[in-house]
Design a protein that fits this description.
By secondary structure, the chain is α/β, with parallel strands linked by helices. The chain is built from 14 helices and eleven strands. The strands form four sheets. It has a five-stranded parallel β-sheet. It has a two-stranded antiparallel ribbon with strand order 1-2. It has a two-stranded antiparallel ribbon with strand order 6-7. A hairpin with a 6-residue loop joins β6 and β7. The chain starts with 7 loop residues before the first strand and ends with a helix.
């Protein structure tokens, strides 16, 4: 197994095939100006990937600005993104710029983009197409040179189908999509990352660790990691505090590897993969069944049957 120093891509650690594919996409994305959509579960490193794109782009000398749409009240979203003038609304005592102005000549990372209200989506689309914004309460446009990277944990194509996200904005943001794999699908990467985090904790706590015992490594690999890298970081931090010796043992990890999914029959595994494959194609095509069927080389009726099966599976029994 390579060391974490040998398996680093900038600030990202990983040596599995899935991550090497992400590295190739990051390198390509950095060379272009088109918006990037990064998807993946909570804790998979979406902001880390966005920062790596920024560092490798022509905007690397500019600021890297972040904003999380899930943590901003809807009535303040427009002002947070584009700024406001004095007196634009109650409490607007001063004129100030928004995140777009702060990110001028740099990169703006918008997390949880699916939570942005419809009332602001049209103005975001204008900012992308015109490279200009208008403060709340103003009529003048301001030119902004911003590299835009957005992220979400949700299926954005399904949000489009629900009517809560504009289809034109969806297509503007999905010129270059990247889906980050969950930690449980990355094989031995969990050991590489755990060793890196362990040495980081050792430095902070002024302790010395040789590494992880074999039983601890097996436990890490067999654990489901619903919280992904963020959960792993918490587990390693706790283990570093609890460990008595210079190696982290399975008892120090405080995890139960038995939470992993049970082995299923091959036919069921194939069916799960089939549904996931069709689902991913629908997401890439904003829920358009005809385009998804053409992309997969199958009859559109197969897509229809897939959606019907999914609907029946999600409908509670009465």
């Amino acid at each position: 197994m390579p060391s974490f120093l040998q398996a680093r891509f900038g600030s990202i650690i990983g040596d599995c095939a899935l991550m090497h594919d992400i590295y190739r996409k990051v390198s390509k994305a950095a060379a272009f100006r088109a918006p990037i959509l990064v998807t993946g579960e909570h804790g998979t490193g979406k902001e880390l990937v966005a920062r790596e794109v920024h560092q490798r782009s022509n905007h690397h000398k500019g600021p890297f600005v972040t904003v999380n749409c899930g943590s901003i009240p809807e009535n303040l979203m427009e002002s947070e993104l584009f700024g406001h003038v004095r007196g634009a609304f109650t409490g607007a005592l001063f004129t100030r710029g928004g995140k777009f102005q702060s990110a001028h000549q740099g990169t703006l990372f918008i997390d949880e983009i699916a939570d942005i209200p419809l009332s602001v989506q049209a103005k975001l689309l204008t900012a992308i197409s015109d490279k200009a914004v208008i403060k709340v309460g103003d009529t003048r446009t301001e030119a902004v040179d911003v590299r835009l990277i957005v992220a979400t944990t949700r299926n954005l194509a399904l949000v489009v189908r629900s009517g809560l996200f504009r289809e034109d904005l969806y297509y503007a943001l999905t010129t270059f999509p990247m889906n980050l794999p969950p930690l449980r699908d990355r094989g031995n990467d969990v050991i590489l990352i755990a060793n890196f985090l362990l040495q980081k904790q050792a430095h902070l706590a002024k302790k010395h660790f040789i590494g992880l015992t074999e039983s601890a490594q097996n436990a890490l690999i067999n654990y489901s990691w619903s919280g992904n890298i963020r959960e792993l970081e918490n587990v390693v931090s706790r283990a570093a505090m609890l460990a008595q010796g210079d190696r982290i043992d399975v008892g120090d990890l405080s995890i139960n590897a038995a939470t992993d999914e049970a082995i299923v029959p091959l036919s069921e595994a194939v069916e799960r993969f089939r549904h996931a494959y069709i689902h991913n194609s629908l997401e890439r095509n904003a829920g358009n069944r005809t385009r998804a069927a053409k992309e997969l080389g199958i009859d559109p009726r197969t897509i229809f049957r897939h959606l019907e099966q999914q609907k029946r599976a999600e409908t509670p029994a009465t």
